[in-house]
Amino acid sequence: MVNTHGRRSAMLLLPILVAVGANARGQRSPDIDLTGTWSLEISMPSGPSTAMVRLKQTGNALTGDYSSPLLGDHKVEGRITRETIEISFTFARIRGGPENTAVLLSGTIAGTNVFAGDIKLTPGNAGTFAAPSVQLSVIRTMVLASGRTLTA
Length: 152
Description:
The protein is α+β, with helices and mostly antiparallel strands. It has a single domain, classed as Lipocalin, CATH 2.40.128. About 20% of the residues lie in helices and about 45% in strands. It has helices at about 5-25, 135-145, and strands at about 35-45, 45-60, 60-70, 70-80, 85-90, 100-110, 115-120, 125-130. It has an eight-stranded antiparallel barrel with strand order 1-2-3-4-5-6-7-8. The longest helix has 20 residues, at about 5-25. About 15% of the residues are buried.
């Protein structure tokens, strides 16, 4: 008599182990997609500033565009690893000069509507940022303008 119970259990367990193994390697589950436009609220030693970043997510890879009155428009690249996000780009400190300053935003994803963390310019200063989705920012602005209380 052949023992097929052990073989059947192993076959049933295989998809679960593959899924757990993929997650352990830093693969992001497909339930959160950061594709969209995000409003960056930046706090640096020189003062606060705002920017917009438009992201497209393909698997764990991010590409997109950064735009701010202070630093201008730049292409960004990044990645997601579990609950963390990293986005980077370079810019020229002097108009027309070489793009020799690197910007790295690294943070934590908090649900589907916001990520936040640290921003570092190399060479340069460091600070923090919060990036709610533009949709959430518009809702918050409308509620605050109406004089109502914004609750979670």
